[in-house]
Write a structure and sequence with these properties.
The protein is an alpha+beta fold and 131 residues long.
Length: 131
């Protein structure tokens, strides 16, 4: 809790402005580490049960086996037992933002056809129909 208190004191927030859920969600990456945090997202605190979205079934299974250790680490980071259980749920993969350059459409509409054979047939048919 000392670490969390230090971080929160640096933010200079008025007292009592963080809810228990916000505090737990902020502590999640610290408790599980950057590697696990990249594949998970603490989404809600329902009573004393933390709901965490995971990328896939593999992550769900692995983290379920680590539940006791994660709960102990959350208690250590938070300084108190706010979370008594964790519910790991499959979540949607979030697609990162893309730059405009990577989203440009091809100049030739035929280039959008993935199959090379179909692309060649389409271009051949298109050239015949223009003549």
């Amino acid at each position: 809790m000392d670490r969390a208190r230090k971080v929160l004191s640096k933010l200079q927030l008025p007292g009592g402005c963080l809810t228990r859920e916000e505090l737990v969600r902020a502590a999640w990456p610290q408790a599980v580490g950057k590697g696990i945090a990249r594949h998970t997202l603490a989404v809600a605190l329902v009573e004393s049960r933390l709901v965490v979205e995971v990328e896939d079934l593999t992550w769900q299974g692995q983290l379920s086996t680590l539940r006791v250790q994660i709960l102990a680490k959350l208690k250590e980071v938070l300084g108190q037992e706010i979370v008594r259980d964790i519910d790991f749920r499959l979540g949607m993969r979030r697609r990162p933002p893309q730059r405009a350059e990577s989203a440009q459409t091809p100049k030739d509409e035929a280039d959008r056809i993935e199959d090379p054979g179909m692309r060649m047939v389409y271009k051949s048919w298109r050239n015949r129909s223009r003549a």
